Amino acid sequence: MTNPHTHIPSDYKPSPLGIIPEDWEHPEMKDFNQLSQLIQKIHGATQTETVKAINRMLTLRNWLIGYYIVEYEQKGNDRAKYGDKLLNALEKSLNTKGLTATLFYHAREFYTDYPQIKDYILSTISPTVSVESTRRISPTASDKLTTPAEKLISQLSFSHIVEILAVKDPLARYFYETECMRCNWSVRELRRQIATNLFVRAGVSKKPEELLKPLKRSERQIQDEIKQPFFFEFLGLKAQDVVEEKDLEQALIDHLQEFIMELGKGFCFEARQKRIIIDDEYYFADLVFYHRILHCNVIIELKNDEFQHEYLGQLNAYVSYYRENEMNDGDNPPVGILLCTKSGKKMVEYALAGMDNHLFVSTYKLQLPDESTLEEFLIRQTKDYE
Q1: pLDDT tens-digit readout, 215-260
Q2: Domain count within the chain
Q3: pLDDT category, 141, cuts 50, 70, 90?
Q4: Which domain holds residue 366?
Q5: Are 370 and 335 in contact (CB under 8 A)?
Q6: How far apart are CA 181 and CA 149, in angstroms?
Q7: Is residue 327 within 8 Å of residue 319, measured between CB atoms?
Q8: Is residue 286 within 8 Å of 315, Cβ to Cβ?
């Protein structure tokens, strides 16, 4: 039997946070290991449920932001005063971490492309309003290819939605929404599938079912959801506030920051997990220093992996960004240092991003730590952790 207004079975008994086992009153407590495992299980489950709850509220907030922006653009008495500068003016007026012109742009898109969220909000604020009653009585073909608001809000984070918003074809967008929820993709995996045109490849494949086999999500990918930029901003957190202490890469960065400062060659710490926005995408540079002798920024990226060309390409993008947006009068061009570590092999690469190589060798390298010094640091640190 189902309540027609709430669509929740009348005999449904919610379990707090979905984590309480049926035998919780009479557990078989055999040994210390079982106790440890149970606590770890509860911790993981509550953390996951917390992330889901925050993501739902974040998604609803952003849709409402988009709604108010569009309403103002259509009906605001002084809207002509701001015109194309509205989003930038809002960011400046609010002056609140996370409430940026980029977010407002995505929120406006979200509201425009996902009108079905209104159904969910109406049913939430007025329990007597059924979600179904806010829809057309006779569903059209397009309705069948529209993901219900409840699913969007409960199963996709706003970071997922931002990636899907870039897909303009409604059918392709519905495809990625469905597959993302079915396969439980991380944001990174969703981005990869969109970039490699999975929708098109599935359409031309003779055996699309083989192509679309669910990809099992790793525990690390689930943990990465906690580190999404929108999540940080919504909670007023810094990126490092939610980093796992046992994470080797972050532990290395902790020590690398101290190591660079101890070299005593003019390094002044400037930022950690520095957020960079390139083409409306969020990126985070591990460490940023200002070198008072060279008068330039030094950007350091550390990868707990073997060298890959895309890592150097990413660092070059950071260096180019700083060159175009962060240089002040009297500054020299920035330089990037890429550190890669993998069992057995350590590697150091310098990113120059348009800088004259001769200039770098003759001037910059006299003040920057050489490759052998950094490689020795990586070897020593990874041995300690191993």
Answers
A1: 545 444 545 554 566 666 666 656 555 544 345 566 677 778 788 8
A2: 2
A3: very low
A4: 243-385
A5: no
A6: 13
A7: no
A8: no
Cβ–Cβ < 8 Å for 159, 55 = no
Residue 105, CA atoms < 13 Å, CB-side half-sphere: 12
* Backbone phi, psi, residue 282, to 5°: -90, 130
Read off the DSSP letter of residue 303.
Answer: E
Tokens at 247, concatenated: 């994470």
Residue 268 sits at φ, ψ, to 5 deg, of -115, 120
CA-to-CA distance for 23 and 133, rounded, in angstroms? Answer: 40
- Tens of pLDDT, residue by residue over 297-310, are 999 888 877 788 88
Residue 80 in this model has a pLDDT that exceeds 80? yes
320 with 199, same domain: the answer is: no
Same domain, 186 and 282: no
Residues in the chain, how many? 386
Are the CB atoms for 84 and 58 separated by under 8 Å?
no
Helix, strand, or coil here: 67?
A: helix
108 pLDDT band, cuts 50/70/90, is: very high
Q: At what angle do helices 158-165 and 170-183 cross, to 10 degrees?
A: 150
Same structural domain for residues 251 and 185? no
Amino acid identity at 113: D
Higher pLDDT, 6 or 141: 141
Mean pLDDT computed over 60-88: 92
Q: Is residue 69 part of a domain?
A: yes
Cα 372 from chain centroid (whole Å): 34
Identity of residue 153: I
Helix (H) or strand (E) holding 156: none
Task: Please give the span between the terminal C-alpha atoms of the chain, in angstroms, as a whole number.
Answer: 57
